[in-house]
Specification:
single chain, mainly beta, five-stranded antiparallel β-sheet, four-stranded antiparallel β-sheet, 44% strand
Amino acid sequence: MKNERGGTVLPEEPASKANHGRRPTFGAFLRSEPTLFRQDQDEYYTAAAAANGNHRVSNASAAVSPVHFYFASPSAGHSTSSPSPYLMSPLNQMSPYAKSPWIVPSPLLGGFPGSSGLVGSLVRKEGHVYSLAATGGLLYTGSDSKNIRVWKNFREFSGFKSNSGLVKAIVISGDRVFTGHQDGKIRVWKKPLKDNGHLNNLSVAAHKRLGSLPTLKDYIKSSINPKNYVQVRRHSKALRIKHFDAVSCLSLNQEAGILYSGSWDKTMKVWRLSDSKCLESVDAHDDAINSIASGFDCLVFTGSADGTVKVWRRELHGKGTRHFLIRVLLDQESAVTSLAVGEASGVVYSGSSDGAVNFWTHKKHLSHGGALRGHKLAILCLAAAGNLVLSGSADKSISVWRRDPVTGAHSWLSVLTGHGGPIKCLAVEQEQTMPRSDDDDENDRRWIVYSGSLDKSVRIWSVSEQMPEMRPY
């Protein structure tokens, strides 16, 4: 159904458990063998979307090879389709001078008013890209090679490596970087100081390992008391304050000084940033937690392979706080794979393995607003920025939607294509633009979008909020 502005909202109710048949799964996308992701056969992805298997995201190591950079041609305009003939022409090869690592593409590339397009690509074929985080002009990338790479101005700036556990999630709080890993650990790193006189020397400016969550002190202290153990398997117990399966997602509440972690062990854990203490462990779902998002009004949202999106509220309890389940937003057959919260707009987005993005608007309470459908295969990641929401999918594309701040209607603006594999993660930063002239549209905010894929590359896009709508829907 289209709205009066030609919008793209499908005002349908979420699917319920009443649906017959088995839950559609996409386990083949989420198993650990990289050879499963055959880049040359689209039919494989279609078959895998209906395959029976677990809903988890995993990865495996890959060989390290040199880093390569690819920059979009200015003549490409705002097209988001496959590379143009100009880019593929043998007459358009880069000169040795252009290949210098000191050459940085212009920030105006593709930056015409209302346009969007590919700015460049970062390729270091050492593993599938599973996590991204962007802050202050730095981009952090995590892969199944166990390396965390740091990029600045389209070149590798720094990097550090964990001893074990591929990197599934990255969040940044001040001078600390938190990474979630396949081995169930949350590792903590300290960023180099900005006033470090050797900041351009990568060996000096390396990130320092501070420890992991829980801290060794808390782990030993907790292990003494038998009441702190929980049954995890038939003949196995684990400490409640530690994840015993992969840490799949992390989310920060900077105002409250809290870090949330979600795991395949079905629990949500709450960590205090000031002393790295585990404040709470919540048995949140009946299956693996795939996504967690801290939101507005002391709310936190969790999405799981059990097909539910749950809302938790942080409330005072005794001398501290606890999280209480206040509502189940969604209960469906398809696995919930990703969440995003527009805190300024009060909108919650949920991506599922059926390719739909459900959303809820918050006024007096959260109410279902409809579903956005722009993908043929599973949604694997979401990101919200300003009035935009972006969805990355197993169909190798990114859909860009704009929410009207007045009517709340969503319009489908663009499809960004070019990756050779499923889009696994997204990160967004507001673009630093030149001073505006009197003729510029103040509402034309531009965003730099980073997309990580199982094709072992990261692509950088420039996206405008004033793009024209796609027609037809």
